[in-house]
Amino acid sequence: MVNLSETAITNALVQHIHRVQWHALPASIQQRTIDLLLDHVAVTLAGATQPWSAMMRQTAQAEGGEPQSTVYGYDALPARAAALVNGCAAHAIEFDDTHDESLGHPGAVVMTTAVALAQALDRSGIELLTAIVAGYEAQCRIGSATGRQVIEAGFHPTATAGVFGAAAAAARLLKLSPEQTERAFGIALSAASGTMQFSEDPLNTMVKRLHAALPASNGLLAAQLASRGFTGPSMSIEGVFGYARQFGGSTLLARVVQDLGQEWEIGRISIKLYPCCKQFHSMIDAVLACRGNKPFDPDEIESIEALGPQSMFDTHMERRPTSTMAAQYSLPFATAVALILDPSDPNSFGHAQRNRADLLALADKVQPQIEPQLQAVYPRKFAGGVRIGLKDGRKLSQTVLDARSSPERPISRPEVMGKFETLLQGICDEARRQQIAQAVLALEHGGTARQLGLSLRHALADVPTRQAV
User: Fold this and answer.
1) Quick count: other Cβ atoms within 10 Å of Cβ 58?
2) What is the structure's pLDDT at 376?
3) What 3-state DSSP class applies to 126?
4) How far apart are CA 228 and CA 236, in angstroms?
5) Within the chain, which residue ranges are assigned CATH 3.30.1330.120?
6) Beta strand 269-270 with 98-99: parallel, antiparallel or unpaired?
7) Distance (Å, rounded) from C-alpha 117 to C-alpha 214?
8) pTM of the shown model
9) 3-state class of 262 per DSSP?
């Protein structure tokens, strides 16, 4: 662990960001970065078909401007507008990647920023990938310094810590000096926001989709301003009114600089296999294991106990979700989906399912059970489990410490491509899917950000905006 004065945290992280070199990274980190970008592109294209994404896209298109960067699936817009629109789409269906310890979704922020700006600046694929790694380092490390406390303070970690991830990625692409990057962080601090009030109003939840869009745009703006000499305060993380103290109450500042250059945060990312709150994924794995081990009919179920830490139940026990977002945030509904439907299908949480009598009947049977051993490992692990009582007296039980696709149980490149293909079938033909995948894979072998952008352009031109799924 790096031993630093508490007045040197921001500077140490900034210096680290500027030392990141793609070819010096472990091969496993390089592969993980490519896998995450493949996943991000597919999730964002699928999310772009949603009504909230269309509203954001139409708003940005109405403002116009120089066409610098592709809006995934459509035309091009100025870089910052493209980051805003793509950030909304990336977070549109709750299928974007997760950094468990910081409770955030870095890909939806960092990758949208990096892809947009790299196109505008005509950067190489290696420069794009390097910026992505740097952005993950910033967002995840800063977010981990506050952890659960930021949510308890009423803020959403993706929206708050995300602005630093975007600023870091943009700083690398703009070739800022460390001093300029620290100024960019100071500017970004004043743009860190995004409250959890959406979790208290289950009908009016579209705003959560902005919690990746706004930090992407604002972080990019912070770096652009810093490149022109605009200043922001130093010590934006550890200062008296810095991020850690203002959003976390107490601080774990040492986490920001722990194992710099030895452990990479992008290697600690989960690729979501279920389009719902990440805290439910181990529980869903447990339900699916019970279904597979001893098949049973849902009508046979008498009782259901969902097992997990306290946070798995806080603000997540809505039994009659009235929006897609609310369904994805509802533990009882997600449990019922895992028992009856395919929890990997975004449509399972959509408007067509929310009033199904069989789902709601099962949701009513779900009771929360805080398990001390699962509480003890949170948030290092998003563990969960289930106990199912059947009417014939049988008891089924399963606990999962690490959900499939978590860093401890990573999925392979073919499995990543399986999710990629499943999400894009029906909205992109096979030739376009192959073109997009090849553009991502080529980034470390001479490909460019603009080539990736061109592969995405107009990919959804003939796809109508869907009803909310």
Assistant:
1) 11
2) 94
3) helix
4) 19
5) 278-400
6) antiparallel
7) 15
8) 0.95
9) coil
Say how far apart CA 183 and CA 179 lie, in whole Å: 6
CB of 358 closer than 8 Å to CB of 300: no
User: Alpha carbon 18 to chain centroid distance?
Assistant: 24
Q: Using CA atoms, how far apart are residues 37 and 442, in angstroms rounded to an integer?
A: 12
**The CATH number of 9-270 is which of 2.70.40.10, 3.30.9.10, 1.10.10.10, 1.10.4100.10?**
1.10.4100.10
DSSP 96: S
Look at residue 3 and tell me whether its pLDDT is greater than 60: no
The residues near 327 (Cβ < 8 Å, ≥ 6 apart) are: 276, 321, 333, 334, 349, 350, 353, 354
Q: Quick one: average pLDDT of 263-287?
A: 97
Query: For the chain, where do the domains classified as CATH 1.10.4100.10 start and end?
Result: 9-270
Phi, psi at 386, each rounded to 5°:
-155, 145
Does pLDDT of 1 surpass 60?
no
pLDDT tens digits along 271-282: 999 999 999 999
CATH number of the domain located at residue range(s) 278-400 in this protein: 3.30.1330.120
298 DSSP 8-state letter: G
CB 246 within 8 A of CB 193: no
Q: Cβ–Cβ contacts within 10 Å for residue 228, how many?
A: 7
Tokens 């592109």 identify what position?
A: 41
